[in-house]
Design goal:
- The chain has 3 domains: 110 residues, Serine Threonine Protein Phosphatase 5, Tetratricopeptide repeat, CATH 1.25.40; 157 residues, L,D-transpeptidase catalytic domain-like; 121 residues, Nuclear Transport Factor 2, Chain: A (Roll).
- It is 34% helix and 25% strand.
- It has a 5-stranded antiparallel β-sheet with strand order 2-15-16-17-18.
- The chain is elongated and about 90 Å long.
Length: 407
């Protein structure tokens, strides 16, 4: 009996599954040259079993699924595949699979959703020449993590001469209630741009977290400004009694297998606060379009810099959204009064701005986060500081600052 893995938008044909399998095998071959060790072939082997079942080559499916279970004994979806391959058979393995399915009947649909999600990876990959719209400029970051929560995928981008290049991607699970965290306890994974703060070794954690954890700095200043609450959002591994978790399973963290966690760790620099972009939906754009987006924003940033140097308070004030600044309708008056005093007391001001990261903020329309180093010099004061600014387009389409502060 042929099994069909079907949910809305899912891969349901052997042809597509075979294409996915070829894609995953090619990725493994390509990435293994640059990574410290070859990526885990787990997903490619899952797709191989699914392809055999879809092709009704059940003898081959049984061989592959049995070998898969042997190599990955804690895989729950392995048992589902085994059951599908042995449907209608009187083999002892069919009895084992049937017993597993009976004991986990309420979770079977979740396991099948994981299968479909893994198979769908080939359909959601960027085409040649495409790059994520959210990562406008990697700045000085060696790597950036990009989470596509709609498709349960975690991408790793490397900074190659200033250009983001995809070097690896992994299946991940997110909060059991989905994406878009608002309040503590809502079981959602946040949407936004964060930084890895540190590493927590597995020996310091309960088994739930698997091989370790990389906490991120949720809630950031943007979250706090919007009154979002909660804490303890981590990238972490999986309990020892299972290989992976179903797509919606955590209390808000984003979760990968222990083997994948150990692979991902080679790309993360906790001391350098590796950026993590968590998006509800990843938009792919061409490199020329991304460059145009960057150039347009950089004109606004340059205008802000020149306004500082002009010593013209009114010109400087026009760079800000007075009603939204620091998420308050009253904060700007105090801010601009302080800046005015600096300008009136100075004979000159010179700024040198070096961008360390530029991101189209996920989940927010026309919003940019820029992280930069600022060298400030006047006749009375000199300073070097690390700063972050959030910008939004106003109703006239102009970029205006809505938050400015030190990193």
């Amino acid at each position: 009996m042929e099994k069909t893995y079907r949910v809305t938008g899912a891969i349901a044909t052997a042809k597509k599954l075979l294409a996915a399998l070829v894609f995953h095998l090619a990725l493994i071959a390509a990435v293994s040259y640059s990574a410290e060790r070859a990526p885990d072939p787990y997903e490619a082997r899952v797709l191989a079993v699914m392809s055999a079942i879809q092709s009704t080559d059940l003898e081959r499916a049984r061989e592959l699924s049995a070998a898969f279970i042997h190599d990955y004994p804690t895989s729950r979806i392995g048992a589902v595949l085994l059951g599908d391959a042995y449907t209608g058979s009187s083999s002892p393995l069919a009895e084992v699979a049937a017993r597993f399915n009976a004991e986990n009947s309420e979770q079977i649909q979740d396991f099948r959703q994981e299968l479909v999600t893994r198979a769908r990876a080939v359909e959601i990959m960027p085409k040649a020449g495409q790059t994520p719209a959210a990562i406008v400029d990697m700045g000085d970051a060696s790597y950036v993590m990009l989470g596509d929560m709609e498709n349960s995928r975690l991408y790793v981008y490397q900074n190659v001469g200033g250009t983001p290049e995809l070097v690896a991607h992994y299946y991940m699970a997110i909060g059991s209630s989905g994406a878009g965290k608002q309040v503590e306890g809502d079981l959602r994974t946040p949407i936004g741009v964060y930084q890895i703060t540190h590493f927590i070794a597995d020996k310091e954690l309960p088994d739930l977290y698997g091989s370790g954890a990389f906490p991120v700095d949720y809630p950031n200043v943007f979250d706090k400004g919007l009154k979002r609450t909660g804490y303890g959002i981590w990238l972490h591994g999986t309990p020892s009694d299972r290989y992976s978790r179903v797509p919606y399973a955590s209390e808000g963290c984003f979760v990968v297998s222990n083997r994948d966690f150990e692979d991902i760790a080679q790309y993360i620099e906790p001391d350098a606060h590796t950026p993590v972009v968590l998006s509800d939906h990843v938009e792919w754009v061409s490199r020329p379009d991304l460059t145009a987006s960057k150039d347009s924003f950089m004109e606004a940033l340059k205008a802000w810099e020149l306004a500082w140097e002009s010593l013209n308070v009114e010109r400087y004030a026009q760079q800000y959204n007075a009603n939204k600044f620091k998420f308050s309708s009253t904060a700007f008056s105090q801010w601009i009064a302080g800046r005015g005093r600096v300008m009136r007391s100075a004979e000159f001001i010179r700024l040198d701005v070096s961008v360390k990261g530029l991101y189209a903020y996920p989940g927010e329309e026309d919003t940019m986060l820029v992280v930069f180093e600022q060298v400030f010099e006047s006749d009375t004061y000199q300073d070097v500081s690390q700063k972050q600014m959030y910008w939004q387009r106003d109703t006239t389409g102009q970029w205006r600052v809505i938050y400015e502060g030190d990193v």
